[in-house]
Amino acid sequence: MLSVSNIHLRRKSYSVKGEIAKETGFDTRTEVLGRLQRGGSPTAHDRILAARFGARAIEILCDKEPTSRIVGIKQNEIVDYPIDEAVEMKHRHTHGLRDLIDMLQ
Question: Which pTM value belongs to this model?
Fold first, then answer.
């Protein structure tokens, strides 16, 4: 469910996205994190993880030839892969983990 504040954040993110695209010439996208869509507040861990992801993304953008890459976490280390490679990766899901997360919220 979208609240008024979530709608405001989406509009703001699209405004920032437009400015970044205009200034850099990069194809720019926005991401609305799932916990925000569900209405939860980010924890300290969420904020630290977001900062780590953002720092790696900035490093990629500052490379001489930035490429389309995806940033993630593997065994508590921040990693990045070309998007084409990441899409082809096999992903393991722990059975029942999603149900447990939903139950604990």
Answer: 0.53
